[in-house]
Amino acid sequence: MATNQAPQTPAISPLIIKERTGSISTAEIISVMKGEITALHIKRAFSTEVAEEITTNFFASSGLKERKDGVPGQYVGASHYRKDAASYFRQAENARPHVEALFGNLVDPVRALFEALKRELHKQGIELRLACSEHGRANVCRGLSWSGSGTFSLDPHDDVAQVLRAGSDYELSSVARNTVAALNFYPSMSEEGGNLRLWSHKPTADDRKSQGVEATGYPYSAVYLKDVPCRDIQLKAGDIALLDGGFVHGVTGQSGSGKRRVLLNSFFGFARPDLVLWWT
Ligand SMILES: O=C(O)CCC(=O)C(=O)O
Ligand SMILES: [Fe+2]
Q1: pLDDT tens digits, 25-60
Q2: Ligand 2 centroid to 156 CA: how many Å?
Q3: Rounded Cα–Cα distance for residues 279 and 152 (Å)
Q4: Where in the numbering of this chain does the Fe2OG dioxygenase domain appear (predicted)?
Q5: Which of 54, 121, 194, 249 has the fewest CB atoms within 10 Å around its CB?
Q6: Which domains does the chain have, with CATH numbers?
């Protein structure tokens, strides 16, 4: 008998992961948006100087806050997760000076990627812009540092449920029908752990329902994922990871006494064949 909590066996979807050192290209970004690559890991994609500047400014920021939405971590910026559009866009407007201040007087590498992608998509007749509403506009990124303890510092989740459930007052809900690309820049990494773990599984609406995570996509249990193959992307400061946020992913536990893991995160994807939206 089917109930809301009926066990559901997760279907396996293959992971296509590309890893290399150097500069990210717009062609690779578009491959992830089109679902041709599950995840792209670019090592040493931005300089140590920029990474250190962002890390110092993140922890010194007067806009640094503790998350109060059930996901343990600290942040600078705004998250649409579990918020209506009015609250999200107002928060994004208020946080903008703090997000911009993360880069000091250095060139913002997230904005540079956004601008390069915008130019390339424009050539193909596709507009790229920040999601907006009458209440304001999204920022190009948000800073995050996860503080979950145990097996995961960020529990296994997908990034699609939160977009699907964003609500009709958001223009970005339609992106959930396509690939929700999650872009992460890593300015600082813990000595041990802090890997990005990807599971070979892209949950459906029924899967989410069976796990009671239809509105959030967070968290998937160890029991649910136990027979699903997974792969770890081992990250270092200065790396970029871009992934299809529809696949279950999480961050492994961190240890080491020194550095804390910090990332800059954004989401983007096709809202229409001629429009790509970007938000946090
Ligand atoms: O910290 C990471 O590597 C992943 C972050 C993430 O999955 C998210 O912000 O949704
Ligand atoms: Fe995520």
Answers
A1: 999 999 999 999 999 999 999 999 999 999 999 999
A2: 8
A3: 25
A4: 137-273
A5: 121
A6: 25-279 (2.60.120.620)
